[in-house]
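Here's a chain:
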Amino acid sequence: MPRKTLSLASLLFLSSPVALAQWDDGLLKPFVMDHRGATTSPADVSFLLDAPAGKGGFIRIRNGHFVKPDGRRIRFWGVHFTDWSRGSVEIPPKEDMPMWAATLARYGVNLVRLHFLDLPSPRGIVDASGNDSRSFDPQQLDRLDFEISEFKKRGIYVDLNLNVGRSYKAGDGVQDFDKIQWGKGLTLYDPRLIELEKEYAQKLLTHVNPYTKTAYRDEPAIAIVEILNENGLYLGFRAPTPYYDDELTRLYNTWLQQHRSAEELAKLRGLASVAEGAPVPRLKGQESAAAPKERYNTEMAFYMDTESKFYEDMSGYLKKTLGVKVPITGTADHSHTSSPYSMLASLAKLDILDGHVYWEHPGSPPPVNTPMVNDPLHSTVVQLSRTAFAGKPYTVSETNHPFPNEWASEGIPVLAAYGSFQDWDAIVMYTFEPKRDADWKPYVGDPFDISLDPVRMTEMAAGALMFLRGDVRPARQTVNRTYSAEQVLESRLLPRTEQPYFTPGFPLALPLEHGVRIQSLAGAPTEKIAAVETNPIVSDTKELSWYTSEQKTGMVTVETDRTQALIGFIKANHKTLKNLGAGISNNFATIVLSSMDDKPLARSGKMLLTAGSRVSNTGLKWNEARTRTQSQGGSPSLIEPVAGTVTLRNLDQAAAVSMSALDGAGKATGEAIQAKKTADGWVLPLGDPVTTWYVVTVRRH
């Protein structure tokens, strides 16, 4: 979960060698999203949703994937509802909620991750007026109830988060309540915080929604319940105050008494240079790297056992005591600069594995503002792929290409394609920020907000078609990894150069070629896999190809029956697909063509065409090297239109092809554009009128 402590003007962006010559700001044109003005749209993909959500019963797990009550597979394509942008709301007013629910449904969103509900009102549902954080604000709770009922009507499920951003007050009975902020780490072991977590869960999950007449523990439109968000205990963990640091050390020594013999304890004291009978101190900071193996492994075992006991206890409380009926996840694998396996050993005991990652998060060290297509081995796909387990659903509940990355048009289509190839179960974008005011000026006001981004938002519809239908077939072969218990412990000592897999000898191109899963974290040591360098890197289904070049002009192609895409440096690569070709003037762009009638593109009568390049704001200013924004600018949002032509090829028995350009409300901007028939196919012009999406119609003989 991103922290919003940085302004856009303070973010550092380093460019790739091609970036300085890439952009002509004179090409930027106004184009804005208009959700409030939208009603019906020819680009509406809500037919992908099965309304109402939870029809027939609860989401279950079968053969390692989510299924509906009738056993049919269901994937989730989602967004968050959060309010970090100025003028946004966490829980919209009731009069706006039907509009926002209908908006998300039109873009193919069938899951909303309700995040930060435990913030104080007027943002979250916690009553801010009291002396504690233990009561709900009645108005906010009513808004939440109505929000969920509106989602349910349209076939949108809910991922309900429990402990995310809760802070504490004097009346909570929490030690150092004013110093621990969100209590990261502490919520895994402090008895009072755990007691409050259970109390919050009980109050929320047993609450009866008056609009659905159902308690949340009995609500089939809730697809997932999450216990914590981005939380964990790591070797070297330092609590925010001495009280919690001492508490963890006391717990460690109690654990040692229960799990180690007197001789082993004596040896640990000797290794730690403390007197006989004295508590064994925990390793601090960098001490772990140089610590004797026995001391390091013992403390790691304590952390892993503490986490496992917490998740087993909390999951048991939710299911057995409260009667929660849907799959539960513990927390996300979220820190890709270190090994996750000690934490995953605990999380894998629950129902779901989850991952978070961003392409060049603005709070991360440089370089940023570079194209992902030039770095496949460290792409979001490869980073996220490390966490999936055999026999468990895998969800990506946070990801994005944060603004103002000038190559962000690549992000959503690449994730939709490779997520389908890896057979993941959910992809959720962080974030969609519903605007409070009807006269909100349209521009991108937050790095993570896609709601008013003219490229990322329209690509959501294309991504929904690709991912929810499974247009890209799952990998033919899956490579399973097994780790020994010793490997799990020692992987946290590996240097950052081993990221993201922290598995020496593992070829990072493998997730772009085959499926990858963890089979065991307590089995045989992971065997080295021979790396074979290829360019392009081709999926074993032959539907995905990732091209790189010394000139830094990478590209991804997607070639399936119902969706085809050209992503990256299209002009430099000259790639033509079975049903799609492009001749454009833009150096960098993403063009996605998807059937909207479930037929192959060759026989489809209606297709969605998205064409996106750069997004900016009016007045957004970069420094001379284009490595830092000096001003984020304002309304209206701007795009570099994808200009040139697309050619639709091999359309069976086509008699005429036309295309309607759409505005920010999804409505046709004027008369349909007629395609010109050539020897290569049907040629359509792009760029005028200015837009990022079109609907193509094919009339046949």
About this structure: The chain has a mean pLDDT of 94. Residues 359 and 401 are 5 Å apart (CA to CA). Residues 242-298 form one domain. Residues 293-321 form the longest helix (29 residues).
